[in-house]
Each structure stands twice: as C-alpha cells, then as structure tokens.
Amino acid sequence: MLCRGNFGEGKKYLDKLSWKTNQVRTAQCLTMVKNSLKKIRAILKTKYLTNTATMEPLTDCHNHDMDSACEDCYYSKRMNKFVDYIRAKK
Predict the structure, then answer these.
(1) Residues 1, 8: Cα–Cα separation, whole Å
(2) Which residues make Cβ contacts (< 8 Å) with residue 86, sequence separation at least 6?
C-alpha cells in the first residue's frame, strides 16, 4: 500500500505489527509476502519508485543500516526492501 501511494493506510498496517517494539515481526511479514509472490509475476511500476522517493527521510538517520530504523526512516526502508525484491525478481 505504501508503494502504491496509500501512505496513511500502509502506515496503519505496519503500525499494527508493533514495529516500534519488535522490528523482527515486520521482517517476518516481509518474508511471508515474498514467499507468496514467488510464483506471481510482479512488475516494478514507476509509481513505486516515485512513492518510495517521496517517503525518504529528510535526515540521515540509519541510512546505511537497513536493520535499524526510527520513525523517520522506518517506512522508507520497508518500501525500499519491497522495491528491491521486485527488482531482483526480474
């Protein structure tokens, strides 16, 4: 949802996973999403890249550490991981 531009709704779903207290849970969910997409042809749409760029944090917090995240960079990093997965599928 975040990559499609539904930022409010996408953030709510990720927030339901309690990422602020347990970031492992969202990593597990991403793994499940990847597994469910294995046999489905996924297309990297331009709007995914545009929306991911829109969510980039203004600060340089945790930029080079994908396993650490704060409120400024968390959603952007999750979007980047999803986009990277779609890119690698080709």
Answers:
(1) 9
(2) 42, 43, 44, 48
